[in-house]
Design brief:
Helix 12 packs antiparallel against helix 14, helix 14 runs parallel beside helix 16 and helix 15 packs parallel to helix 17. This protein is an alpha+beta fold. It is built from 17 helices and seven strands.
């Protein structure tokens, strides 16, 4: 609306009160593309005089700064400040901007409406509106209606093509955008709607993987394949869960294509392609799982037998390592490319324990070089690690082999210094 000087001058966004808490403040920072350069120039003019003179003429500098940012990726002010600093070499603190000096049309106007679309209030301070009309004062409303796509108990692709997105009716006449995905629900699969497309994409791949275990059941190991070692896992969890983890790990190791099918025809093609890749991989991973469970049990017994005062620190460190390798659900959280290495890591731990008795000084030196890095890594290791940290987690196991059982060899060169640098780089990047 073009009404200079009026309260509703500029762009107005209507937000249903029920959805106010879900609005991203940062998205409104970027206004609309046609006015973004003007807004950035105005922000530059809002800087204190001495700093403002480093960025003149403001319109030209604003346009050059915008070439360095990605609109919509986080809040505007930090992105603009960083771009200005890069352009001139003069540090521009975010706190130096004064958004309150902007003309009204350069700040998004938000109009709050009720479930019937009736305006309740409007303003350009989203935080203030959220405080006034947030969830605390929101009347309880009926949940969003279920979509016809959502269902449970799926074991075959019998639901037709899966659209990339659907809409649901929301409060205040709004349309809610949702992203369908097939999800892993344990023994069966389900169809669910997600708010976030990235989350839907990740869940859908897992759901397709789970559905493949039904389509390829005859080509995957059954309960009989794990019978000899099922008792070794029973103290950690249900062997039936372990079998499901093994099936998914086998399929994940042969399914390298990035795209997940969204219709029955593409799913059948994928199943046929993976069936041809399965035999060797299935046998190898099944054997690795059996060797891992046996190796873990043998190491536990050896640690129990050698829990002496002289080996107290060694035993404690090895128990820590073992607990991070073999635990309830460990197969689901171990990348297929590293899973076959677990027996070697457990063998290296056994060799280390025997060597520690013969060469206590060498053991102490190696342990002291490892511990600071090992502890620093696990202190900050997040639940959802970046690819760099996830890779480093397994390189640390390779480092243990290098330090304590070098005769077994490593997959790639490793050293304390190299992995320390990788950890520092991962922290900076993350």
């Amino acid at each position: 609306r073009f009404e200079p000087g009026q309260d509703d001058d500029g762009i107005t966004v209507r937000v249903p009160r029920a959805l106010l808490s879900r609005v991203d403040d940062a998205a409104f920072d970027w206004l609309i593309p046609g006015w973004l350069a003007e807004k950035c120039a105005a922000l530059i003019r809002s800087l204190p005089g001495a700093l403002r003179r480093q960025f003149v003429p403001a319109p030209d500098v604003a346009r050059r700064a915008l070439e360095r940012v990605q609109p919509g990726a986080g809040p505007l002010l930090p992105a603009l400040a960083e771009a200005l600093s890069q352009l001139t070499g003069t540090e521009c603190p975010v706190s130096a901007f004064d958004p309150q000096r902007l003309d009204r049309h350069l700040r998004m106007r938000v109009e709050i409406v009720d479930d019937h679309g009736t305006p309740l209030a409007a303003g350009r301070d989203l935080a203030q509106l959220r405080a006034r009309f947030g969830a605390a004062g929101l009347p309880k409303s009926a949940p969003s209606p279920a979509h016809a796509l959502e269902r449970d108990g799926i074991t075959t692709w019998d639901f037709g093509p899966l659209p990339a997105k659907v809409t649901l009716p929301g409060p205040g006449g709004a349309l809610l955008l949702r992203f369908p995905a097939l999800v892993d629900a344990g023994e069966r699969c389900a169809l669910r709607l997600f708010d976030d497309p990235a989350a839907a994409q990740a869940a859908h791949r897992g759901g397709v993987l789970a559905l493949l275990t039904h389509a390829l059941a005859a080509d995957l190991p059954g309960a009989a394949a794990l019978a000899p070692v099922a008792a070794l896992y029973r103290r950690l969890g249900d062997p039936a869960d372990l079998l499901r983890q093994l099936e998914r790990a086998i399929l994940a190791s042969v399914w390298v294509e990035p795209a997940a099918p969204r219709d029955g025809g593409a799913f059948e093609q994928l199943a046929a392609m993976l069936r041809e890749r399965l035999p060797g991989i299935a046998a190898r991973l099944t054997q690795a799982l059996a060797d891992t469970l046996r190796g873990a049990r043998e190491l536990e017994r050896a640690l129990d037998q050698r829990a002496t005062l002289a080996l107290l620190d060694v035993v404690a460190d090895l128990r820590d390592q073992l607990g991070r390798l073999v635990y309830t659900g460990f197969l689901a959280h171990t990348p297929p490319e590293w899973f076959t290495e677990l027996p070697r890591y457990l063998q290296a731990a056994q060799l280390r324990l025997a060597r520690a008795q013969r060469e206590p000084a060498a053991e102490r030196t190696a342990r002291q070089s490892l511990q600071p890095l090992w502890q620093a890594f696990w202190q900050d290791y997040p639940a959802h690690a970046t690819p760099a940290l996830a890779e480093l987690r397994w390189l640390l196991e390779e480092l243990r082999v290098q330090l304590f059982a070098p005769a077994l060899g490593t997959r790639q060169p490793v050293s304390v210094a190299r992995l320390t640098r990788l950890l520092e780089a991962a922290r900076v990047a993350g």
